[in-house]
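User: Modeling request: complex.
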Amino acid sequence: MRNLTLLDGQKFQVTIQRLCHQLIENHNDFSNSVILGIQPRGIYLAQRISKELKEIIPSTQIQNGILDITFYRDDFRRGDSPLVPNTTQIDFIIENKKVILIDDVLWTGRTIRAAMDAILAYGRPEKVELLVLVDRRYSRQLPIEADYIGMKVDSISSQKVVVSWEETDKEDKVVLVSENV
Amino acid sequence: MSEITQRLSSKHLLGIKDLNAQDIQLILETADTFKDVINRPIKKVPSLRDITIANIFFENSTRTKLSFELAQKRLSADVVNFAASSSSVSKGETLIDTVNNILAMKVDMVVMRHPYPGAGVFLSKHIDAQIVNAGDGAHEHPTQALLDAFSIREKLGAIEGKKIVIVGDILHSRVALSNILCLQKLGAEVMVCGPTTLIPKYIHTLGVKVEHDLRKALNWCDVANMLRIQLERQDIKYFPSLREYAMMYGLDKKLLDSLDKEIVVMHPGPINRGVEISSDVADSKQSIILNQVENGVAVRMAVLYLLASQK
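Assistant: Request completed. Predicted assembly structure:
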């Protein structure tokens, strides 16, 4: 096993801030926008982004929700282990809102496909955008791309990209894990 | 969902007897997420879209059948319904033949209610599909026990350490046995209460208390589950008259208000108003009868989802 750190420390922080500024460019005061973090790992990035946005523009009231996609996945009964559902928490109406969907890593695109299905169960948003911290390029299995990207990574399918967070894992970093190289 | 296993230990749901406490916890926690799903604007998820389920009812049912069917439809499963009264069973077809014919139409799961105890177990040994027992005679009714447990947990926060009394026709009740097993596995204390003729002789071997005085039983408990008098199963007279039964074992508002503490009142339905429970109790704040019905759909979704995910 070999671990290669792709992003940490100040660079990590700068990346988050850049993503926030890009969001502000498109969403102004977020009065008609909502943030949805995808369970399980996207919720930490969503929390960080909304915290950072509030620091940059203290007057913003950003609505923040978490979305579980388990029941919308396309690999039910196809994997070795059962799919275990998580909580969904959306305490606002997303009809006609601009939804910013947030996940830590974009890889095959299947999670995002499921997330778009899941969102539609809550209403018809005006627009859905995708923000990811890491885009694993050239590995998509569906025609899905992100609107906001923290960093792009070239990797092979046997490798894993792991994002850890200060809140839960003591350190902000992005690590590329390769097995038996 | 940290400490518990993420897979049921059984391929079928034949009775609470086959489940362990972890299985029950897993079902209840999964039901939490499904309760959230059925309260959304769009109450349907696509999880079971490639699964076909046959509901085979050899005995009448309103709630259970509707509840299963709604659960299946909200999981996007394909559903075929079969009621024995309107089928070839009346022409003399055997249980295995009937079910094998339905399976030949490529069904993945069978939800069955049958008047004979053990019908589900019998079927599971002879056919390939997964079986969910929706009531077999006076034996078990596992999904009812699970939804009762879910409703108690929702109302009181936990089941462990709670005192639950099951009142009425214990002898003919499948709900009673499943409830006793389920609640005990979750750490509750269970008492049964009713006239001597309606309490099975060796019930104390299950580790339940037996009480014949309704007032004493109610003063002991946190939750009272009032069972229906199953007249259709009673071949002989077990008590002099319904009126006398209602006077001695019926729960009315006056009795409820005179208790030392506020208890929760449950009923698996259908209610015989004025017999085991009076109308003003059934419709009171302490009654969670309609919550039980709502939770039934969520719990059955959880059961079907967890069984289906085992392939």
